[in-house]
């Protein structure tokens, strides 16, 4: 190999699992460094997919071949003996989602792997090893039984506002031989914390990820070898919280809210000894349990109450006297198949200090965190035994400075800590979270200071993969608000809001939102998990709910919400190159498509819609929904246009699964709908659809349903509606906003999209900022609307705004799945002088940073290894393009492709480039 630097990042598991990277030169390999956010343990896939990244100094770096070796031990791998799989040299440029193709994997197998790569710059040495372990692939791999206590106690209460205390489990066991390896597999429902010899295992919180527990339950896996390195007695301890299992509103509206029973658990601790023997410690009726501990209640809506006087010192350590504890009961299993949690667990991802503390009245303080956040408050306090400190949470304040809680509905959102009374005490809840900016603290002994309080920010441990800044502060503020809103609503599933008595995974909120979010966060595993949730919620006849997992039984059979099933799968393919998701879910998606056609087709159109263009700006700022029919878009139009677009997606999916018959079927159905749609809704004399709302015209235009001779007039009607009737403001709701910004830019009115993005008067995203919002509101009029549906941390109205930021302002778009080829085409005509943004794709970092002067454009781009980019320079004269001050003719890594609409288009290979473009004609 030539003397060039080359880095190889290895990723392993069902998804892109950042495991390690090794810097490779012609001399040596650098030290191993772990970069994973989650643990590559317990992957219950017999065919995991492997990925790596190339980073080298040579421009245009491309992979030409690879060789993967997988061994059952690190020693064997280092010796070159790949007993599980040696791919041999494979002539391919594939470096993401490469399926394992070795010997069949069995439960609990260990797999160490490495890769060697051939590039157009030579051959690399072997990468440093990465690894994964196989989980429990079959139901019968689990030993022992489910245990719990299927009852409440005298201090509990079961009604609309149920109070159920946490359950504490313990088990002592003995190891008399030297332990070689030990793994724990745990299902703790609804939520758990695991301890060995008094030490908490793992950084996860609020684990495991929620599911419909009758369909699937998630288990987590931990390597606990280090905790068993001493022979003798050991203690296992588990605390079970309620989570979504013992629901937030037990015995309330059973026709709507699904319930599952009392908390329960199953655990296997596998121990391999140095002498070759193996032992499994599992859950059975030798475990002891008590519910009479310090966590007196824990409820996601209402909060957690902790009485430190009831603490059980040493309960999770060897030698604790548990004679008064109960014998654990064997209980009915929840019904769902145990599956490994492959999506990242929730973690405490950041810590915020309060901005201010203000005395509201006698012994009551208002704390301002300065940011609407999701998580909880950690307190430091010192006082007399029995003193109760109450913390109540809200997103905003009333005029008198007290908490505004009307928009929380009946959620009590209150934590209570009762002091033990022994010196300085620290406390934070375990099994709840809150959406808040403000905290009302009462009963605090003395006066709390800023140093006594910490806001712990909690969301799924996803890497932030995107960044954006510009010379327009309002654009930057909206972007930051979006980041905080998206992060706060990642809770093992994408939820709608983190604060009120809802917090549900509504499909319609993420139809396009998942796509925009994927630029900011590595959300691949989260949304792959959510596809499984949706599939599990599908009824045998094909119906898909509006909320999945179906914690609320809403099977309304509209198109626009359940259709998210298809758009999420498409996002995973486009943004991450995930073909598997489409292949896995294709039969279920097809079944839903057929179900809707068979049950709701009438005269070639789909008749069923429930929500309309949800949350358009109403005619009165006090309203939640508009009552003006001129602002509303007909439901059948929304359903039929959306169904048409979903049929087009299914055509592409049929191609991927090689089903030509299905493809022709979907094409024919789409053609029928398009014809019927235009017959019913297109007013040819006026060049408008239906009642001429922006959404009514935008959907058929964006979906390419408009006959060519009417496209210009239909678009002119959109422009007229926005500029004249709406005075340059937005008038779309959840559905229309999903295509609005791109729809305007793609039709040559990026200036109008820019105006909508930078408006600060009502209704707009900037209006929210001007009114002090630090997240995105549920309503355009979130400061004045009826509080019964007025979340101040919601993401559904983002629509395609973030996609527009990346694809039209920064200029980063996937042209081939997973960003194998990138389109870099910022809209330099906009009144922006400077934009800098980046996205870390599966192949590596993509960056676009540009600064525009009066007569010159400076543009720095970064293209990751093993990819290419189509770069659009805003000039038809190649002589005006320079790189590092030199002409680009013959420049390494560049190849001229074409001229298009005043642009010079070049294919650019991997590397970092500093271009300048002379803008003077």
Description:
It is a single chain. With 921 residues, the chain is α+β, with helices and mostly antiparallel strands. The chain has 5 domains: 128 residues, Immunoglobulin-like, CATH 2.60.40.10; 199 residues, Jelly Rolls (Sandwich), CATH 2.60.120; 113 residues, Jelly Rolls (Sandwich); 343 residues, Glycosyltransferase; 108 residues, Maltose phosphorylase, domain 3. Helix content is 20%, strand content 31%. Strands 22, 23, 27, 28, 29, 30, 33, 34, 35 and 36 form a 10-stranded mixed β-sheet that branches. Strands 37, 42, 43, 44, 45, 46, 47, 48, 49 and 50 form a 10-stranded mixed β-sheet that branches. Strands 12, 14, 17, 19, 20, 25 and 26 form a 7-stranded mixed β-sheet that branches. One of its GO terms (molecular function) is hydrolase activity. It catalyses: Hydrolysis of terminal non-reducing alpha-L-rhamnose residues in alpha-L-rhamnosides. Its EC number is 3.2.1.40.
